[in-house]
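In the previous chapter we treated chains in isolation. Here, by contrast, the input contains two separate entities that must be folded as one system, with a combined length of 564 residues.
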Amino acid sequence: MIIIDTIEKMREWSGKQHQQGRSIGLVPTMGRLHAGHMSLVNKSLETSGSTVASVFVNPLQFGENEDLDSYPVDLDSDEAMLSAAGVDVMFIPTKSALCPKGIKTFVQVEEITEYLCGKSRPDLFRGVATIVLKLFNIVKPQYAFFGEKDWQQLAVIETLVTDLNLDLEIVRGPLMRESDGLAMSSRNHYLTELDRQAAQSISTALKEAKEQIKSGEHSAEKIQAGIRRNIEKQPNTRIDYISLCDPVSFQECAAIGDSTLIALAVHVGKARLIDNCLVRRD
Amino acid sequence: MIIIDTIEKMREWSGKQHQQGRSIGLVPTMGRLHAGHMSLVNKSLETSGSTVASVFVNPLQFGENEDLDSYPVDLDSDEAMLSAAGVDVMFIPTKSALCPKGIKTFVQVEEITEYLCGKSRPDLFRGVATIVLKLFNIVKPQYAFFGEKDWQQLAVIETLVTDLNLDLEIVRGPLMRESDGLAMSSRNHYLTELDRQAAQSISTALKEAKEQIKSGEHSAEKIQAGIRRNIEKQPNTRIDYISLCDPVSFQECAAIGDSTLIALAVHVGKARLIDNCLVRRD
């Protein structure tokens, strides 16, 4: 595996792949890799002629009082995992190169960013869209891989690709869970042992919601109340949002339909965790 | 010359050029072509392996009370001019294809768009940046050509290319003038004979400002007042702005420096005309 840390060298490497007719798969990450990331990496290794995994903690997607400074970093562990998987390039651009102080150009995806995480974190998706577009322009992949844990992010990136006529395919990977059900996330490193027990209530609440729906409960209000009760009875939890919504427009639903997204964000100790699942009226 | 009117066919044609190792030059226009556009076309023909001229009246860059509906269109004349010049492709995407109703993604260049035309026309540069980026992504040119008549637009596009790491070169063409000095513009078609005479005062005022500076006048305020007097004494004129500013940041200058831009926008009859020149302290 080659490690590339400048935009120029990345561009050069990509140019050579294209000349040789080899397709490129890109897995953009913020590092501190886990099995969720690696499932995307493996998908890329199966799909693409060569695979680039980028590791960049994107300062543009953090708000002022968020966890940019404490975001977990472990480049050695990331390198070992990517190398063992057979990735071709680990791309680790510097902050000053990818996100220089004088940057003036930003990409905004409207409407669908007014809900869920976009509502709680108003800088988030502008930052994601801008840096992801920059990575696309540098790496020039034919495929880019994103996980469904960040469901709304995926929608933002798919919209960006369509609207800006980008010539690449977005490939979705499923949300991956720890053995106790907790959605895999680099931010799980923030959790103390006690927090971790409390955090389990998030996936448990989603599971119970699914069972409720299977038993014929279709009221969004009632299902939401059930999830809320389940999580609030745990210590150290503070719910940011619980939304039952359309999985494309993110508009709230009054009742479970043919395809409804249950998405939620919960602060547990120092971590803000998100989770989601798709449900349907049987 | 081939005329291409779909994004898919344009993409296909570009792909073939790249496969054959031929570079592409793109001249994006809103049509109603004049010698100013054609000087950019000729620059592209000299520089690029093949030349694409796009004609698209971009609805995103017009404000609500602006001239989108009356903007001059003459595709037959445009086609004849481009074909005679030896252009390879005239790209005329439809409004519904390039700018579909559900479009949610927009590109915003900040700071430098707060001045001059960006101040008077708040939708302008967001619309320009978004559609120009889409054209770049579809045509994938190595070179793109823009005229210095739209000096601020050029700065916006150069900033966009740098900030988003686009792999192409922006080539500037000089502002072209009619024999009486009027800056060439498709919007000159709006002028009646009387307006046309009044409009001449814009370039005359710039010429006199240059002479004033040569004679040692460096006060931005005094030079601006001179330009204003020159234009205001003509009938049917209404000044939008006259700015003496830095040619990169567009911040106002108090005095002429090593490189100062004089930029102005003036309503003459139904037309809003812009002009500019670069001046320096001798």
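Chain B has two domains: 2-173, 186-275. Residues 2-173 of chain B form a domain with the Rossmann fold fold (CATH 3.40.50.620). Compare these points with the single-chain example from earlier in the chapter.
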